[in-house]
Structure to design on (313 residues):
């Protein structure tokens, strides 16, 4: 059985390729050319949240299943908040063929998914990117989004002042960009054209009333029924796009709770894949746009198959 290390994934998966693969995966799923069941969530009381995510794209040699483990208390034990492993199987025989270390793959595919959504939902004139969070997801989102928009400035906020200042300095150096550590969440919410929430917060990280018409928000961090990164005010006034309607209604607190409150209806949700194939059009209602994603297994399956094919050459 092949073991694929993080270093192999980093070497074989540039951001531009990841964006291409993710776009193709959304299209294939929307066209009925892939199987990607809603993920299974198992929460251990006072322990980890476990996500099981199988998928297969018709015509590919592999079927994959990702097992993601999340515990926001892990850093206290010197462990990552999120840990992921992808297991690949021969699509014909069912025999296991490989085990792929999935942390970097997940972070890059998530950033690529956000880039695809931002490319079709954000204003072409967007110049300021706002990022909530300073972890791996925030790290991968900056270069990915710089491929789809020309940002003049990037604002970063997290609760730890030292971490956000160090993060801003490193991102400025790594990407030759103007990255500024914001003093408050309000500075990011009011001053950004595109916003990314890449946190594990259970409560909204900014006040949605501060977000102006024409701003695009990507909520890609917390994706459990009880967790929320954005508030009902933002969801209510936004045109809402999700990666999967079924998954959003089952496990995304950012969507579930506003529906329960009567702020939006299930019919208000648009799927990214359906927009990409022209089945659904963005509703011209004005206001902000919101992309809520928790990650689809079909994205992991598509990228895993690509990485394995590259290694077999």
């Amino acid at each position: 059985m092949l073991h694929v290390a993080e270093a192999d994934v980093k070497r074989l998966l540039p951001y531009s390729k990841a964006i291409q693969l993710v776009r193709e995966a959304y299209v294939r799923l929307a066209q009925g050319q892939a199987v990607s069941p809603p993920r299974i969530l198992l929460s251990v009381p006072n322990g980890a949240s476990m996500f099981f995510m199988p998928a297969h794209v018709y015509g590919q040699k592999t079927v994959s299943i990702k097992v993601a483990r999340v515990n926001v208390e892990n850093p206290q034990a010197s462990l990552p908040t999120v840990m992921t492993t992808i297991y690949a199987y021969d699509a014909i025989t069912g025999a296991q063929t490989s085990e792929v270390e999935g942390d970097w793959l997940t972070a890059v595919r998530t950033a690529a998914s956000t880039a695809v959504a931002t490319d079709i939902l954000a204003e072409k004139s967007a110049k300021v990117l706002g990022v909530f969070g300073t972890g791996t997801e925030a790290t991968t989102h900056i270069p990915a989004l710089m491929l789809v928009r020309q940002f003049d400035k990037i604002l970063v906020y997290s609760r730890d002042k030292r971490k956000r200042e160090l993060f801003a300095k490193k991102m400025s150096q790594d990407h030759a960009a103007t990255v500024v550590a914001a003093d408050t969440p309000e500075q990011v919410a009011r001053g950004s054209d595109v916003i990314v929430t890449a946190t594990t917060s259970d409560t909204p990280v900014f006040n949605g009333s501060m977000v102006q018409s024409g701003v695009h928000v990507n909520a890609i961090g917390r994706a459990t029924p009880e967790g929320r990164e954005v508030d009902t005010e933002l969801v209510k006034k936004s045109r809402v796009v999700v990666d999967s309607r079924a998954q959003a209604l089952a496990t995304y607190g950012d969507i579930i709770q506003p529906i329960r409150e009567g702020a939006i209806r299930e019919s208000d949700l648009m799927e990214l894949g359906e927009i990409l194939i022209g089945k659904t059009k963005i509703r011209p209602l004005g206001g902000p746009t919101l992309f809520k994603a928790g990650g689809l297994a079909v994205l992991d399956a598509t990228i895993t198959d690509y990485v394995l094919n590259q290694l077999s050459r």
About this structure: The longest strand covers residues 49-57.
